[in-house]
């Protein structure tokens, strides 16, 4: 072979060697190790670990596991924050649908200050009713609140509604006249809702509070509307609270004895607010 060719081959082999040493090639594991595996240095902890040559791992198994766990924890925190935000938005929606008067919005059980032992016992019953409301939805247990004006019926019913809404249930606090008016408005020409739709607004909530039964109330049509809604809720086992300044016999004259009797079923209670008006106590 010509000396020039031999010299050129030597120079070519030298160049190939120089290029090979400059490339970053993973160090192969010594003899006896699994073929196709390499040694690498972990970018986090600096330890040497083995991995398949075809997979470009930059972290050792321990650091990869730690990193994955941190990612899972971060995702769980993010999910928790989103769920909390959704719960807050849902609670705001539920509270807005309760339609409690502005006077009682945001108040808690601690804001109710019973003036007598009887008032304290009634408050305890109401608070327990709200706390066990899931059970009430399973049995359809109801309440009746009767007594003179200013004795705290409205406030306690509002606290029950807000407590129930805070648990994720739907509640609606209304008056007998508003209820009847909405149904009667559906009879008008051009009404945006039918009578069935209007009634459904009062039969669907998990809890319905009907206040002021007996105040300028008593026509046959109005009695039929009210008793139909109460009966529909009774059949669906949805709890209802009615509030009135009337006595039980007077309620029976308006609603019917059978309807009032149903409020006693499954542990239902008639709560009598027979103490002096809080408003009059403040004046005194």
Structure, described:
- The protein has 284 residues and is α/β, with parallel strands linked by helices.
- It folds into 2 domains: 44 residues; 185 residues, P-loop containing nucleotide triphosphate hydrolases (Rossmann fold, 3-Layer(aba) Sandwich).
- Helices cover 52% and strands 13% of the residues.
- It has 11 helices and 8 strands.
- Helix 2 runs antiparallel to helix 5, helix 3 runs parallel beside helix 5 and helix 6 packs antiparallel against helix 7.
- The longest helix is centred in the N-terminal third of the chain and has 38 residues.
- About 5% of the residues have low confidence.
CATH topology of the largest domain: Rossmann fold
Give the overall average pLDDT: 83
CATH architecture of the largest domain: 3-Layer(aba) Sandwich
Helix and strand string, N-terminal first?
A: HEEEHHHEHEHHEHEHHEH
Strand order of the largest sheet: 5-6-7-4-8
Task: Return Rg in Å.
Answer: 37 Å
**Total strand count, please?**
8
| Integer tally of domains | 2
Classify the beta-strand content into a percent band: 5-15%
Which class do the helix and strand fractions yield?
A: alpha/beta
- CATH hierarchy, class of the largest domain: Alpha Beta
């Amino acid at each position: 072979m010509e000396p020039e060719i031999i010299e050129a081959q030597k120079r070519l082999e030298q160049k190939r060697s120089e290029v090979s040493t400059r490339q970053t090639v993973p160090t192969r594991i010594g003899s006896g190790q699994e073929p196709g595996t390499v040694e690498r240095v972990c970018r986090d902890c600096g330890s040497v670990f083995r991995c398949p040559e075809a997979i470009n791992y930059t972290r050792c198994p321990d650091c990869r596991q730690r990193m994955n766990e941190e990612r899972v924890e971060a995702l769980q925190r993010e999910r928790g924050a989103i769920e909390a935000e959704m719960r807050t938005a849902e609670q705001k929606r539920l509270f807005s649908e309760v339609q409690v008067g502005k006077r009682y919005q945001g108040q808690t059980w601690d804001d109710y200050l019973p003036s007598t032992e009887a008032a304290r016992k009634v408050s305890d019953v109401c608070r327990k009713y709200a706390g066990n409301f899931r059970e009430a939805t399973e049995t359809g247990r109801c309440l009746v609140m009767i007594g003179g004006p200013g004795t705290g019926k409205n406030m306690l019913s509002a606290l029950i509604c807000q407590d129930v809404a805070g648990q994720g249930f739907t509640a609606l606090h209304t008056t007998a006249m508003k209820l009847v008016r909405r149904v009667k408005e559906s009879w008008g020409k051009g009404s945006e809702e039918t009578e069935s739709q209007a009634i459904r607004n009062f039969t669907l909530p998990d809890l319905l509070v009907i206040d002021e039964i007996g105040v300028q109330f008593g026509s046959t049509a109005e009695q039929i509307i009210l008793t139909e809604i109460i009966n529909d809720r009774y059949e669906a086992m949805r709890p209802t609270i009615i509030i009135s300044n009337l006595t039980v016999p007077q309620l029976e004259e308006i609603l019917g004895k059978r309807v009032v009797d149903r409020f006693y079923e499954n542990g239902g209670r008639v709560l009598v607010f027979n103490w002096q008006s809080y408003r009059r106590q403040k004046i005194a």
